[in-house]
């Protein structure tokens, strides 16, 4: 699977999806390919139960982030060294994907007659705008969704989300020898950014979720000015605003608008121009939800200790399952701090643990009646 260069942006998940579909068909699943964009299908594989049971959804994504420079070996050829395997996506998220597939294959091969369905939802585009998870079929229901992202042996029940507004400052260009004849868009943007950072410092640091940490706001891209001797008439800045569970997209945008509106010196020349798509907003599942206890017990059986309940600081597709009213948790092999870096690795023993955990959760859920 590492060989399929499902790099997002630029590649497609098509080859990886065809492989996942074939393996799942051979295991005895009903497989549906849901084309999200040309050559980019979600794979929905269902191991049908005998009827009347609960449905478990195992979800993760087939796309990976670009390899980047500086790898010690070819990022798209999986390399094994002792207990570790290296390659782009071995952990995020082809490791959990392989573990989910192996869990379903093992359950199918065991001949276990479970009343409920086990569904693998391998989606596209998690690393960009989550088009895959957002557009899963409306009729997809489950009693529990397990999202495969690295949690280092813990069980995550919350994650942050984000919105990415692009601010535009429109000034008036002039010769820079006579700056008073123009309006400097870069200066307007500078004032705006200082005000937004003050807000982040004074207000967002107080908004803390016990599992995901605090809300944040950062400027991550800025563009302005075209020539050294021209007063710039346009400046754009991208704001990466990280939301915690409970913070709504609209409210967070309104706050930014209000800060801009509260700066008379900007003279109405700065506005939110557009939103860059993100994975989505934050979400959380109650720690005392019975499905959290079920997943926690499965991890305890495999690791011999109760998992810590944690939250991801990053985005993930869980939000799109929570939106459908499906209780959701995040669990996956590996340490999240290795994700999106060069020489990404995961241990084979963690992949085995994850396979056992997914199989155990799937059997518990699909083995019980509704
Ligand atoms: Zn991921």
TrEMBL record:
<dbReference type="Pfam" id="PF07687">
    <property type="entry name" value="M20_dimer"/>
</dbReference>
<dbReference type="InterPro" id="IPR036264">
    <property type="entry name" value="Bact_exopeptidase_dim_dom"/>
</dbReference>
<dbReference type="GO" id="GO:0016787">
    <property type="term" value="F:hydrolase activity"/>
</dbReference>
<protein>
    <recommendedName>
        <fullName>Peptidase M20 dimerisation domain-containing protein</fullName>
    </recommendedName>
</protein>
<feature type="domain" description="Peptidase M20 dimerisation">
    <location>
        <begin position="157"/>
        <end position="261"/>
    </location>
</feature>
<dbReference type="InterPro" id="IPR002933">
    <property type="entry name" value="Peptidase_M20"/>
</dbReference>
<dbReference type="GO" id="GO:0046872">
    <property type="term" value="F:metal ion binding"/>
</dbReference>
<dbReference type="InterPro" id="IPR050072">
    <property type="entry name" value="Peptidase_M20A"/>
</dbReference>
<keyword id="KW-0170">Cobalt</keyword>
<comment type="similarity">
    <text>Belongs to the peptidase M20A family.</text>
</comment>
<dbReference type="Pfam" id="PF01546">
    <property type="entry name" value="Peptidase_M20"/>
</dbReference>
<keyword id="KW-0378">Hydrolase</keyword>
<dbReference type="InterPro" id="IPR010182">
    <property type="entry name" value="ArgE/DapE"/>
</dbReference>
<dbReference type="InterPro" id="IPR011650">
    <property type="entry name" value="Peptidase_M20_dimer"/>
</dbReference>
<keyword id="KW-0862">Zinc</keyword>
<keyword id="KW-0479">Metal-binding</keyword>
């Amino acid at each position: 699977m590492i060989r399929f260069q499902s790099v997002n942006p630029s590649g497609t998940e098509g080859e990886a999806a065809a492989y996942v579909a074939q393996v799942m068909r051979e295991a005895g699943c009903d497989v549906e390919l849901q084309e999200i964009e040309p050559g980019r299908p979600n794979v929905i594989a269902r191991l049908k139960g005998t009827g009347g049971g609960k449905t478990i959804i195992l979800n993760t994504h087939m796309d990976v982030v670009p390899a980047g420079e500086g790898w010690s070996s070819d990022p798209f050829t999986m390399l094994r060294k002792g207990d570790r395997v290296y390659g782009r996506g071995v952990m995020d998220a082809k490791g959990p994907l392989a573990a989910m597939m192996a869990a379903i294959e093992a359950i199918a091969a065991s001949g276990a007659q479970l009343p409920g369905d086990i569904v693998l939802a391998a989606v596209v585009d998690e690393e960009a705008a989550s088009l895959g998870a957002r557009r899963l079929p409306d009729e997809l229901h489950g009693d529990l969704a397990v999202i495969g992202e690295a949690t280092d042996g813990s069980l995550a029940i919350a994650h942050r989300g984000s919105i990415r507004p692009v601010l535009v400052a429109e000034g008036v260009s002039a010769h820079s020898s006579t700056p008073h004849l123009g309006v400097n868009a870069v200066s307007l943007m500078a004032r705006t950014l200082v005000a937004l950072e003050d807000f982040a410092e004074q207000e967002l640091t107080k908004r803390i979720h016990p599992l995901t940490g605090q809300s944040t706001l950062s400027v991550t891209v800025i563009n302005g000015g075209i020539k050294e001797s021209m007063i710039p008439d346009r400046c754009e800045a991208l704001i990466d605003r990280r939301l915690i569970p409970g913070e709504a997209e609209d409210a967070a945008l309104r706050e930014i608008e209000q800060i801009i509106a509260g700066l008379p010196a900007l003279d109405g020349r700065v506005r939110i121009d557009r939103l860059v798509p993100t994975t989505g907003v934050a979400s959380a599942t109650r720690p005392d939800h019975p499905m959290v206890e079920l997943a926690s017990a499965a991890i305890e059986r495999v690791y011999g200790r109760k998992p810590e309940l944690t939250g991801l600081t990053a985005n993930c597709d869980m939000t799109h399952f929570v939106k459908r009213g499906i209780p959701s948790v995040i669990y996956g092999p590996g340490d999240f701090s290795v994700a999106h870096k060069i020489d990404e690795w995961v241990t084979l023993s963690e992949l085995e643990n994850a396979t056992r955990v997914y199989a155990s959760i799937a059997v518990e859920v699909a083995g019980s009646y509704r």
